[in-house]
Amino acid sequence: MIRHAPHPIGxxxxxxxxALASRRAAEAAQLALxxxxxxxxxxxxxxxxxQSDPGIVWDWxxxxxxxxxxxxxxxxxxxxxMASLSTASSAALATAE
Length: 97
Fold this sequence. Notes:
α2 crosses α3. The protein is mainly α. The model has no long low-confidence stretch (mean pLDDT 87). 0% of the residues are buried.
């Protein structure tokens, strides 16, 4: 009888998830650096870039918009969690009195 080791699919999925999260974090860091660099450029420099390569400018705008939307969604999550905890804390204090 041949025995096979169990397939570590859970490990594979976790590794893939970790790798994706790592890539997203690296992309976010690169976009933050790019945004900082863009903000240091003059209007003339940015206009020249837009004329020479309008596609990359729109790609950057879209990437910044995606990151902004993600940050806003994250902020709504944190705000909702804080509100939920505040409500629970207020209710607990009211019943304790």
